[in-house]
Amino acid sequence: MSAPEKFSGVLTPVITPFTADLTPDAERLIRQCKWMLLHNVGLAVFGTNSEANSLSTDEKIELMDRLVEGGIDPARMMPGTGCCALSDSVKLTEHAVKLGCGGTLMLPPFYYKGVSDDGLYANFSEIIQKVGDANLRIYLYHIPPISNVPLSLGLIERLIKEYPDTVVGVKDSGGVMENTLAMLKAGWDDFRVFAGAETFLLENMRNGGAGCISATANVNPAAIHNLYANWQSDDADALQAGLDTVRDIFQNFPMIPALKAAAAIYGDDADWCRVRPPLVALDEAQMAGLTQALHGIDFAMPGLKEAAE
Amino acid sequence: MSAPEKFSGVLTPVITPFTADLTPDAERLIRQCKWMLLHNVGLAVFGTNSEANSLSTDEKIELMDRLVEGGIDPARMMPGTGCCALSDSVKLTEHAVKLGCGGTLMLPPFYYKGVSDDGLYANFSEIIQKVGDANLRIYLYHIPPISNVPLSLGLIERLIKEYPDTVVGVKDSGGVMENTLAMLKAGWDDFRVFAGAETFLLENMRNGGAGCISATANVNPAAIHNLYANWQSDDADALQAGLDTVRDIFQNFPMIPALKAAAAIYGDDADWCRVRPPLVALDEAQMAGLTQALHGIDFAMPGLKEAAE
Question: Which site from A19, A147, B93, B185 is most exposed, i.e. has the minimal number of CB atoms within 10 Å?
Fold first, then answer.
């Protein structure tokens, strides 16, 4: 197996479909992944918006296997493999590397709060050493609004210095562009900085960023990739404004249920609405509101319905 | 298997020992549990202070099995079985009930923040229905300072009304006595309210509480149980003050590493100091500070060293 190339471009935390008894639905997930790849969007499966932390380690391993068996190129996959338990993180990460995944997106352990950089460093370092595979590529996942466990610039730099071939990038979902800019200006050699939402895609690209890993790329993949591919063009600001219009609509609703609702509406497949507790599907009024708002901007998810057939 | 009796008294989230490669050490855990039971302290294994969320589901299942094989009475066990993933919560809870555990202490799923009571209700309800065992007894675990996902009085009441024989108690680790008092005064029939620390034990008992589930019962079990047994005595306030003196010392240090350090010092067993990342063991200066502070109050853990031999 050859060493993975570093990621760049647009990826999405692919939404995870469930059957009626709330079991992960591998077949629907394969179809969604294929539709993503068709629009040049990479697969950050098991991200926050994938309800990854509502899935067990065994469920994630089985889904990864099914995706690869289903014809998904593992080089395009950056599964989330950072768990609360060191043993889970090692097991999942090992499996992802063995499958040939291009990288893994790694949350810090997020139960204990106020932990030290030494403790977080030890966590990532132990994972890297226990996995012990030269093909491991880690993209750190900074998302303090949800994890409540931030990754400081000092911690990231320490990891890069110790493991320069392994710790190769970050997803910054902190929502604070100054932090992203500080990473871009830190002088870390070919370190891939992804914005956590397309909201910051253009600014990230103009400052040397690698792209974005965004929830709404689940529903608006082509347009987001289009800005990535054309960020140096004259109409880049207009393209960014177009993306923002779509994102604003989704942000008016609980994000994960709204993404799934859009997949249900535009894929004509109501089963997509299911979420695992503690999340709750959109209610009727929310569903109507989302439908109307998207209709108002002539939103479309071209080819989704066909992909589901 | 007969229906479990409801818990009362003092329980502790038993600290979890690790071997040099950070594997859970079942033998040391069995010894610690036996020392707890010797002092009338029940076993809330896999609590916050057990580093439960640094253990995988499979590791917890194996430890539970080893404890019971090692002679620990499962009726005295209230393992933590609430995980982020519904599938993990169901698997762990099912196993605990099959083993004959007296109850389970259940965190809400704690990754997603700002979730609704409907979503949390659905989580607990799904677990209860999927486990589907009349011997299941759930003690809800309210610990917003760490989980960041509070359990509202309305949610608890809804669960009690729907599942009166299953949802039978709560551990309130919010640190706000007014909330504990509100639970005690809610009129929930024989609902067992445990204080989350012995700090609130006397006040909890005076208001109809069931006892406490406390980290420091790992190191100070006899004295804490003594207050529980004698809360109506004339010297109850003095007993409470004595407990507070010990607790204050531990609260000056990172709690979990300090509890393990005490087990190491008084059990003459340095291996107890190990923690899993993201936690970090006490450094030399902290270790010296803790030793001195405990020496200053003539602290002891009688029989611990002998129990380890």
Answer: B185
Q: Which residues of B220-255 are buried (b: 16+ CB within 10 A; e: fewer)?
A: bbbbbbbbbeebeeeebeebbebbbebbebbeebbb
Tokens coding A107: 């949350």
Establish if A55 touches chain B: CB-CB under 8 angstroms. yes
- Going from N- to C-terminal start, the domains of chain A cover 9-236
Question: Quick one: how far is CA A171 from the chain centroid?
Answer: 8
CA separation for the pair A157, A277 (Å, rounded): 37
- Domain A9-236 fold is TIM Barrel (3.20.20)
Determine the residue among A86, A126, A251, A282 to mutate to test chain B binding: the one whose Cβ has the most chain B Cβ atoms within 10 Å.
Answer: A86
Nearest to A95 by CA among A122, A110, A71, A77: A77
**Tell me, what DSSP letter sits at residue A272?**
G
CB A260 within 8 A of CB A284: no
Residue A128 CA to chain centroid, in angstroms?
A: 21
All residues of chain A having their beta carbon less than 8 Å from the beta carbon of residue B91 are 56
- Please report which helix (H) or strand (E) contains residue B173, including its range: none
Assign a CATH topology to domain B9-221: TIM Barrel (3.20.20)
Residues of A in contact with B123 (CB under 8 A): 277-278
Dist. CA B82–CA B89, nearest whole Å: 5
What's the whole-model pTM score? 0.97
Amino acid at position B28, single letter: R
Of B54, B119, B126, the CB nearest to A86: B54
Chunked mean pLDDT (size 10), chain A, 309 residues: 91 98 97 97 98 98 98 98 98 98 98 97 98 98 97 98 98 98 97 98 98 98 98 98 98 98 97 98 98 97 84
Model confidence band, residue B71 (pLDDT cutoffs 50, 70, 90) = very high
Nearest to B82 by CA among B24, B158, B167, B15: B167
Q: Given an 8 Å threshold on Cβ–Cβ distance, is A278 in contact with B123?
A: yes
- Whether B281 has its CB under 8 Å from any CB of chain A: the answer is no
Query: Chain A: residue nearest B91 by CA?
Result: A56
Minimal Cβ distance to A120: which of B58, B149, B278:
B278
> Is residue A59 less than 8 Å (CB to CB) from chain B?
yes
* C-alpha span between B23 and A127 (Å, rounded): 14
